[in-house]
Specification:
By secondary structure, the chain is α/β, with parallel strands linked by helices. It is about 25% helix and about 25% strand.
């Protein structure tokens, strides 16, 4: 533990904070590569936001991550698939997210959408399929995916936010798994709030630190939000109308904000209760340690050992435990039939008989996975077992 003066990146509160040094941990970049470098975490005593301190060394390390970023490299650049909105099968993550938004908020047949932190344009492609009469704009640092964005539709636009000013109004602005990366996120939110049209909405999704302890392991995430701390950040940036679309047990927080949020969707006071950030931080650290211990204990059996998932949690567990497992398991067919960290990636139906597959997910989510996939040839173990 270190004592360090620090000004919170959300509320600006200055205090003497207990900083936790994560430098000896095996962490993971957001594109799922194991990483060890300087990392200090702190909890703001005022607004309870969990955040990493953007030291010069941390900024240098994340600069290296972004310079060599490999989006969806587990599937050759193809977008991740997740359970569909209706629970029937798997679908592209961006399509599932938009289905959720459109089920709550009615958008006009024509308008303009901006995806801030657009990456290779996965969300914009899905948006164009669902709303072909809308104009499409993407914004990101650098121009690596500029051509892909411009090819989505005949009038697509791309903004390099490092050196270009966005001077339009939009009926919808999206930030998907973007805000948690932004040291200057409060300033960017304030800027985006005035770029919404009269009835525009902001759609935002970030990891939920209250449900998903593995978010703490992501090196280039400066913020680790809960619904309360995300709502606080949005309101401080000028978004007075806020609605939470996700349930309490989801790994991601989905929110819409802005003047276009219908009155019936507005959050009530129950959603604004502050969390005890330090208590949550300690609980998440405890969970991660127990997860690692449980996984290591399984190798003492002489059965084949697998890890469910090829994203953050699976990558961390493989790297932190020196690759003691024999294979990975994934439901996404784009990721199976190949190697990941020199291990085969199998479909659940292809797991060898009598093998053990560890599910490194929060308990409630792990239970859902095991109930959906368990069978006579599979033995799934979660952290609570």
């Amino acid at each position: 533990m270190l004592d360090k003066e620090y000004a919170c990146l959300t509320c600006g509160h200055e205090h003497t904070a207990n900083c936790v040094d994560l430098s000896l941990w095996t962490l993971v970049s957001s594109d799922c590569r194991a990483k060890k470098a300087e990392a200090l975490a702190v909890v703001c005593e005022h607004c309870q936001t969990i955040q990493k301190i953007p030291t010069a060394e941390w900024l240098r390390a994340i600069g290296e991550i972004y310079d060599t970023y490999q989006i969806y490299h587990q599937s050759g650049g193809k977008e991740q698939k997740i359970p569909s909105q209706d629970g029937q099968g798997m679908d592209r993550r961006s399509k599932v997210l938009l289905d959720r938004v459109f089920s709550h908020v009615v958008l006009p047949e024509q308008g303009a959408v901006l995806d801030y932190g657009c990456g290779n344009g996965a969300l914009l492609r899905s948006f164009h399929e669902l709303k072909p009469n809308w104009s499409i704009s993407g914004a990101d640092i650098g121009g690596h995916f500029k051509d892909e964005i411009l090819n989505i539709s005949k009038d697509s636009k791309f903004y390099n936010v490092a050196n270009e000013k966005i001077d339009e109004k939009f009926e919808m602005i999206s930030l998907l798994h973007c805000l948690e990366h932004l040291v200057d996120g409060s300033d960017i939110l304030q800027d985006l709030s005035v770029k919404l049209s009269e009835n525009g909405i902001l759609f935002i999704q970030v990891p939920n630190a209250k449900v998903n302890p593995f978010d703490l392991l992501i090196y280039d995430h400066v913020f680790h939000f809960t619904p309360a701390t995300l709502s606080e950040k949005l309101k401080r940036a000028g978004f007075e109308r806020v609605c939470i679309l996700s349930s309490d047990d989801e790994k991601e927080i989905s929110m819409v904000a802005g003047p276009g949020v219908p009155d019936e969707l507005l959050c009530d006071g129950d959603n604004q209760h502050a969390d005890d950030g330090l208590e949550l931080f300690r609980a998440n650290v405890s969970f991660l340690k127990r997860c690692e211990e449980k996984f290591l204990s399984l190798k003492r059996d002489n059965r084949k050992l697998g890890i469910f998932g090829t994203s953050i949690a699976g990558t961390w567990l493989s790297a932190s435990c020196d690759g003691i497992h024999d294979f990975f398991v994934d439901e996404d067919v784009e990721r199976t039939g190949s190697k990941y960290h020199d291990r085969d990636v199998l479909l659940p139906t292809d797991v060898p008989g009598h093998a053990v597959v560890f599910v490194p997910l929060p308990p409630k989510i792990a239970t859902k996975v095991m109930n959906r996939l368990d069978g006579p040839r599979l033995v799934y173990c979660s952290i609570d077992q």
